[in-house]
Amino acid sequence: MQVSTTFRHMEQSEALKTYAEEKLEKVAGKYLDEPIAAQVYFTVEKIRHIVEIVISGRGITTKASEATNDMYAAVDAVLDKIERQLKRYKDKLKNHKPGNEDAGRKLSRKVFAAESIETSPDPMVITTKTQTAKPMAVEEAVMQMDLLHKDFLVFTDAVSGEINVLYRRKDGNFGLIEPQRG
Question: How many Cα atoms are found within 13 Å in the side-chain-facing hemisphere of 106?
Answer without folding.
Answer: 3
